[in-house]
Amino acid sequence: MSNDNKAQKYWKENLVYLGILLAVWFLVSYVFGIFLVEPLNTVKIGGAKLGFWFAQQGSIYVFVILIFVYVSLMNKLDKKYGYDN
Amino acid sequence: MSVQTWTFIIVGLTFALYIGIAIWARAGSTSEFYVAGGGVPPIANGMATAADWMSAASFISMAGLISFMGYDGGVFLMGWTGGYVLLALTLAPYLRKFGKFTVPDFIGDRYYSNVARTVAVICALIVSFTYVAGQMRGVGLVFSRFLEVDINTGVYIGMAIVFFYAVLGGMKGITYTQVAQYCVLIFAFMVPAIFISMNMTGNPIPQLGFIGTMTDGSNMALLDKLDQLHRDLGFAEYTSGTKSMIDVFAITFALMVGTAGLPHVIVRFFTVPDVKGARVSAGYALVFIAILYTTAPAIAAFARTNLIETVSNQPYADMPEWFSKWEQTGLIVFDDKNNDGTIQYVADAATNELKIDRDIMVLANPEIADLPAWVIALVAAGGLAAALSTAAGLLLVISTSIARDLIKMQIRPNISEKGELLSARIGAVFAVMVAGYFGINPPGFVAAVVALAFGLAAASFFPAIILGIFDKRMNRQGAVSGMIVGITLMLFYMIKFKFDGFGGGTPEQWWFGISPEGFGTVAMFVNFIVSFAVSRMTTPPPQDVQDIVEDIRLPSGAGEAHVH
């Protein structure tokens, strides 16, 4: 595998990860917290309406998890392609 | 001991700590002054980023704002945290690999153009100055309320402290001071929150108390109770909000993208040793921020419930001591319209008798909940830590912009390392003076502009940086025209609908129903489209620039941040 080829493949895999993680990012904040807030509010988590909870709590927890998932995926990817020096 | 004695002790101790750290960590080179030599451990950088990011507004105003906005307050919570996901995934690692000192550095090199660099410097200066003026005002307010000195004296004291450690320590001094300030501010924010959550819901964790049930015997969920109180008084339900869905979307998006594009936040990721460190320190930063940002909505709901239950339909004569104390500052105003001696706090403006400034909620909260004097003093120290840490970070961006992006890169390219360091320090002195001036003579538009700074960052920087990394074909013509169109459109909309220029306009005339606060989203998309179209009609960037792009996409080999 030539260096250029390797770099291309690494970049493509990176973009796939980005696409998936940003889709989740959009889902928990914009979809759950804003667009679908009314229907989700008919469900409850503890004493809070679910849509409201996503807008003020849930989305933030998911954001934190997303960054750490990204860090671990990228660390593995760096190792796979030998970019981890 | 009185609140004031406690405040003197706690504030004095924390200030001594900050100055001690500044002397220990003073900068000896431009690299240390600009990016702490690129040697900050990721977890420390995470804390420093959190302190840098969370300003007097986050600490003092945000919970109060949410308290009065209910569901709509979510725009700040999601907007100011979700931006870190964008930052961690799409900007921080690549900018760290690029390995220079500032955002204009990146823009200037990537788009091989001093025009692009200058546009970026101007945007960075506009954003940073509007921001820092608000911080100095915050310092003045806390001093005047808790130490009972004049607001202006408070601003001078704040200037002197920041002056000392920003000018002496540069980024290195600021980073380690911010670590200490984060600890102070988060402790100060959490202690009263835990006390109040315990009182109201029996759960010591505010995030759980928020979704828990009241301990007042009603056995109702806290949020249901609050919704009911709101309905009874004619307000919109706390958990429903009043803004249109498209506006909520636009504001949240503009805040997220603006956060990821703020120069004083981005520059923090130049301080870690490598790309791996940049990724993980964004994660730590968000953890440290999320602690405050998930507690704030809980405080907002507790404070709102507490407030309504304390004042609504109660005799004015029975009000507790804090009520009259805040009345003296003019931040609570009672006007007994029907002369019955009882407080009617209702949505209808004609019969409502009570006006409460939303900024007092966090500061008054410990008093409302009757917490010990040392907790109240702690909140004062926390507010100061939040304001000072953000001010210092911004001042650094301003001084770096002046010393490096203007003097070194454009006016006197052969300036010596020593001369550059000196001009960075002089830049910091100048920035402190200007910030102090605006703190003492706040122009009426500061508060409005701070909120709009995010829109400006979103409309100008963000697309240029993202495209610079993800679109190899993006060239100088595309990026420059995109930035200019984006920021001009944003400024036009701001001036038209916020400051009544260009014939003014009412909310009914907003384009697509989007407020000026959310318009950065629209301007950002326009920037993307213009950049893309122009770049495809003009020549591709030169090969060496395309090689830079290839290079920053790979994580290995990020050396120490270098000068050339």
UniProtKB/TrEMBL annotation, chain A:
Coiled coil: none annotated. This is Membrane protein. It comes from the Bacteria. It comes from Phaeodactylibacter xiamenensis. Pfam families: DUF4212 (PF13937). The keyword Transmembrane helix applies. Residues 7-83 form the Sodium symporter small subunit domain. The chain crosses the membrane at residues 15-37, 52-73. Keywords: Membrane, Transmembrane, Transmembrane helix.
From TrEMBL, chain B:
It comes from the Bacteria. Belongs to the sodium:solute symporter (SSF) (TC 2.A.21) family. GO terms for cellular component: plasma membrane. One of its GO terms (molecular function) is transmembrane transporter activity. CDD domains: SLC5sbd_u4. Pfam families: SSF. This is Sodium:solute symporter. The chain crosses the membrane at residues 6-25, 77-95, 115-133, 153-170, 182-200, 248-270, 282-303, 371-398, 419-440, 446-470, 477-495, 510-534. It is found in: Membrane. Keywords: Membrane, Transmembrane, Transmembrane helix, Transport. It is a multi-pass membrane protein. The keyword Transmembrane applies.
